[in-house]
Specification:
This protein is α+β, with helices and mostly antiparallel strands and 204 residues long. It has helices spanning 2-10, 14-67, and strands spanning 78-81, 84-85, 89-90, 93-98, 109-116, 128-135, 153-157, 161-167, 172-173, 176-178, 183-190, 193-200.
């Protein structure tokens, strides 16, 4: 009889087991909730960082291509054209004669950069920052309104801001035509976030 009594005293009842499991579930929920929130926040920060990195990389690459500008006797080698859209958004156009395409096994050319967005007769266009490579055409000969969307290369998907400021040796200006300027500020934005890259191009 004593052995049975001892055995009964050491065993857990079903109610006790259910209470213990329930308490463990509550503790786990309380502990995992903040952990899940932390993981979600880390993923968001990682996505933001990746987005900013892509924008910064594109801006630095454009500045690097600008530094490879080639001399043009009596012709304009560099143009920055300010353009504004609804909502105070900038979609400037940048054009310069450069040897950068040589690294892509293409002849020296004018490179043009601008934002494209879908619109009437352009429904198939993917929005973003595009680059055109135009061999045999100087920047002053390019009609920016006639740049063929199909001939452009999408550099930054969904970019909705492209703002250029040029340091002409005295002031920062937003419209410029002439030789390679001493400095440039390139701002690229997407989805409300943006990065600005300021770089030197030519000696004063």
């Amino acid at each position: 009889m004593r052995r049975n009594e001892l055995f009964e005293r050491k065993a857990f009842t079903l109610v006790e087991v259910l209470v213990a499991v329930g308490l463990m579930g509550i503790v786990a929920a309380v502990a995992i909730g903040p952990l899940v929130a932390l993981v979600v926040r880390l993923e968001a920060v990682q996505a933001d960082y990746a987005g900013e990195t892509a924008l910064s990389t594109a801006a630095r690459a454009i500045a690097s291509d600008c530094r490879q500008i080639l001399p043009q006797e009596g012709k304009i080698a560099f143009r920055a054209i300010r353009r504004d859209l609804l909502g105070n958004r900038r979609t400037d156009v940048l054009l310069f004669w450069t040897g950068a395409p040589l690294t892509r096994k293409q002849p020296a050319a004018t490179e043009a950069y601008s934002i494209l967005e879908p619109g009437p007769f352009r429904e198939s266009i993917k929005p973003g920052l595009y680059r055109w490579t135009l061999p045999g055409v100087t920047p002053e000969e390019v009609f920016v309104d006639r740049l063929d969307p199909a001939a452009g290369t999408l550099l930054v998907k969904n970019a909705d801001l492209f703002a250029i400021r040029v340091f002409d040796g005295k002031d920062w200006v937003e419209d410029y035509s002439g030789p390679l300027p001493p400095g440039i500020s390139i701002q690229i934005g997407r989805g409300g976030g943006s990065v600005t890259h300021v770089d030197t191009l030519a000696a004063f």
